[in-house]
Every structure is written in C-alpha cells, then in structure tokens.
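Why does residue order matter? Because the sequence determines the fold. Keep that principle in mind as you read this record.
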Amino acid sequence: MITAAPAPLQPSSVRSAAARWQQAWREAVRDPRELLSLLGLDAEAASLSEQAAAQFALRVPRGFVARMRRGDL
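Structure:
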C-alpha cells in the first residue's frame, strides 16, 4: 500500500495571497490628514480639525492610494 501525506486544506498560493491582503490591510492609511497629504492635498489636510479627523473612520490600502490621482478633488 502506498501512503501519501494528506493534501493541505489550502494551497500555499491561497495562504500567501491571504497573508498579502492582511498585511496590506494592517498597513492601510487610517488618518484622513495622511491620506490628503499623500494625495498632494496638503492645504485641505491642514484645514481638517482634530475633531473632524477623529470622527471620520477611514482605512484605505496603500495600493489603492497609489492608484488615485494626485491633487484631484
């Protein structure tokens, strides 16, 4: 009888894709002022109050930010 090891529940490519997605989510932009600054909208970032920034829940993966047009309102 030939025995074989059981197949993994998830192929390694699926596990690595999940790990990349989770890493991107952990490193996402959470501060509206940082997002505005990354987009070249520093004047808008400076005018955003601390209270407004705290009330604006945000999580944008940096890969998505990289696809946005700089300075575009």
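The mean pLDDT is 86.
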